[in-house]
Structure formats: C-alpha cells, structure tokens
C-alpha cells in the first residue's frame, strides 16, 4: 500500500514538472530573442525598427502619444448595428474615409508615419497599430507592460462615422455607439476601467489640433511620464468655456502652458464619475492595472481572443514611475475643486518654488 502511495506521489511530481516545463518552454527566434510562441518571432525585427526609427530611440515623445491615440481611434470604430470591425486597421486601409471624420482630426499624421512600416512587414495594419501602441507605451516610465495579441485579419470595410468621441463630449452626450463600448468596458473592468480606457493617453499626451494656435500643449505637467498628475491637475479650479473657432471642447486650465478638455473636466466633476476619477489621484498601481485591463479589451474589439496568439512577452518592460503625486508649484489644497461627495480629495503638497509654465511637447 505504501509502495502504491509512493508511486502515485512520484508520478504526480513528474507530471507537474513536465507541465511546468511545457508552460515555460521558450522558442529562440532567428534574431536571437526568445518567446513563448514561434509565431511571435516576426515581431522582433519590427520592435527594433520602430524603437529606433519611429520612437526616436525609445523616447516617450510625440510619436508615442500619437501611436497610442491611434490604437483607440482604430479600435473604437465598432457598432453591432452600424458596422465597423473594431481594431482591424481600417483607419489605415480606408484612411481617406476615416481620417476625414471630425473626431479623427490630425490622426492622418501618425497614419502617414506608420505607413512605411506597415508596408514593410508581413503583419496586418490592425496588428501593427496595436503593437506600435503597446511598444510606444513601454517607453514611458510608470506605464504598465501591455498585453499584445497577434492575429487580426485585414479590414474589409471602413468604420462608419460618428463612433469616435470628441473632446466636448460628456458622459450623456457621448453618441449611442460609444455608450455601448462604455458599457462593454464597464462589464470588463467597472467604471474605473472606462475612465482609464478613455483617458489613458492624456497622461502621456499633448494636443496639436484641439487648438491649432498652440500645438504640442500637454494635458498635464508630466507628458513624458505615465503617472496620476492628470487626475490631480484636472481637479484644480478652472473655467469651462465652449472653445474657440467653434465648439472645440477646450476648457481653460489653471496652469499656464497646459490644455484641458471639456470632456476631462466634466468627467472629473460629474456625480457619476467624480469619485472614481478621484481614486486615481494617488493610485498609481490602480491606474496601471485598470489601464492594462481596459487596453486588453479595447485592442481586440471585433475579434475573438481564442483565435489570437499571445505575444505579450515581446513588449518591453517599462521603467518605474518618476516622482510622486503632487500639486503644481504655487498651488495649495484650496485650489482643488472637491467633486466626490463621499470621500475627501487626498492631501498633497506642492512642488517648491513659484508657479511656472508647462513647456510644450516638441514635435518629432
């Protein structure tokens, strides 16, 4: 009896070791890197190329900001009733149609920048757009390492108009198809997932076309760092106004050199979202987790995860966040406009020195 028990135990141990070995087995690619799946080997030459020639040697700069924006604008073009294939690269294959949508103003610049790379490599535009976004984000300190799944088919039709939210949209004014994607995000990660889903790029972004007279204007004071400053600085007291040159969705920021969108300011103050917004003010780990989960869902809108190959191990690991949550120089807690009804805004100290202007993000 004891012998049988020992034999069963040894068999269980051997099986566990074999299973563990199969799960950790690595494939060595022709380029020398290793990955869990041979299908992912095609990505390493692309990774090297875009880091050097699209992202300026691995910087968290303008091309990263715009590549991240493109992941959203391509993927969100999906509606069960109106059509659209989601994250399928249609914004590349049908660029003359989709770049003309008002909400896609200025997106043609990054489409043009990525076109030579898409044409150079044997992956679809849908895969390239999401891969470039994930790689670009990895250049920003404080960002999570994003998931990347390979296997999106080529788009067969353009996305219908009206599916991409605009800067002046509030929760209630977001078009019906966008609300459906919002509820999709809520089922996957709650309201916090939706907020990080919509605003993920504003922490590491600058506006070129919201107000064309001030290109390169950042949304927060640390556009090269994936941190929580957006959720602090948007809560500073400011004045909403309808914008210039029509309803651009621009709101007055209390920080010189910084731009604020109506949609951001309203989300920060709406009773339905204010407490969730506030939860990110000092919640770096929470923001990272929610952002990664929301991006994972967004990046495969219109596709079946079971039909795709997980190549997440190709994405570089980002550096840790730089700095800690703080008020900008010259501000105090009295400048915070409390909006959450159930919890006070976290107590923060300000950077030393007098108030300064936030510098613009230089073009690539």
Automatic annotation (TrEMBL):
Disulfide bonds join 29-41, 40-311, 60-140, 275-340. Pfam families: peroxidase, Peroxidase_ext. The keyword Oxidoreductase applies. One of its GO terms (biological process) is cellular response to oxidative stress. Residues 123-344 form the Plant heme peroxidase family profile domain. Heme b binds at residue 202. Keywords: Calcium, Disulfide bond, Glycoprotein, Heme, Hydrogen peroxide, Iron, Metal-binding, Oxidoreductase, Peroxidase, Secreted, Signal. GO terms for molecular function: heme binding; metal ion binding; peroxidase activity. The keyword Secreted applies. It comes from the Eukaryota. Ca(2+) 1 binds at residues 74, 86, 88, 90. Gene3D superfamilies: 1.10.520.10, Peroxidase, domain 2. Ca(2+) 2 binds at residues 203, 220, 222, 227. Residues 344-364 are annotated as: Disordered. The active site is at 73 (proton acceptor). Residues 1-21 form the signal peptide. PANTHER family: CATALASE-PEROXIDASE, THYLAKOID LUMENAL 29 KDA PROTEIN, CHLOROPLASTIC-RELATED. Belongs to the peroxidase family. Ligninase subfamily. This is Peroxidase. It comes from Mycena venus. The lineage of its organism: Eukaryota, Fungi, Dikarya, Basidiomycota, Agaricomycotina.
């Amino acid at each position: 009896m004891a012998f049988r028990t020992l034999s069963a135990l040894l068999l269980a141990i051997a099986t566990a070791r074999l299973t563990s070995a199969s799960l950790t087995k690595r494939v060595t690619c022709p380029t020398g890197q290793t990955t869990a799946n041979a299908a992912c080997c095609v990505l390493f030459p692309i990774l090297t190329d875009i880091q050097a020639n699209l992202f300026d040697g691995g910087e968290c700069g303008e091309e990263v900001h715009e590549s991240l924006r493109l992941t959203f604008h391509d993927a969100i073009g999906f509606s069960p009733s109106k059509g659209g294939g989601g994250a399928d690269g249609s914004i590349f294959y049908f660029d003359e149609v989709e770049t003309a949508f008002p909400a896609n103003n200025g997106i043609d610049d990054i489409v043009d920048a990525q076109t030579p790379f898409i044409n150079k490599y044997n992956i679809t535009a849908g895969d390239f757009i999401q891969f470039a976004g994930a790689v670009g984000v990895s250049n920003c300190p404080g960002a999570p390492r994003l998931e990347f799944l390979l296997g999106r088919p080529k788009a067969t039709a353009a996305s219908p108009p009206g599916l991409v939210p605009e800067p002046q949209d509030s929760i209630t004014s977001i078009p019906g198809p966008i609300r459906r994607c919002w509820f999709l995000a809520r089922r996957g990660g709650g309201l916090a997932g939706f907020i990080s889903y919509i605003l993920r790029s504003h922490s590491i972004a600058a506006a070129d076309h919201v107000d064309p007279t001030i290109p390169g204007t950042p949304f927060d004071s640390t556009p090269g760092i994936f941190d929580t400053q957006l959720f602090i600085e948007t809560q500073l007291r400011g004045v909403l106004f309808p914008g210039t040159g029509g309803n651009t969705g621009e709101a007055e920021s209390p920080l010189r050199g910084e731009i604020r969108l109506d949609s951001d300011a309203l989300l920060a103050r709406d009773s339905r979202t204010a407490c969730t917004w506030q939860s990110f003010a000092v919640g770096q780990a929470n923001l990272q987790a929610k952002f990664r989960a929301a991006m994972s869902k967004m990046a495969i809108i219109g596709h079946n995860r079971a039909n795709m190959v997980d190549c997440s191990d190709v994405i570089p690991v980002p550096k840790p966040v730089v700095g800690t949550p703080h008020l900008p120089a010259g501000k105090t807690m009295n400048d915070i406009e409390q909006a959450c009804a159930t919890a006070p805004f976290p107590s923060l100290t300000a950077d030393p020195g007098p108030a300064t202007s936030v510098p613009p993000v230089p073009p690539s």
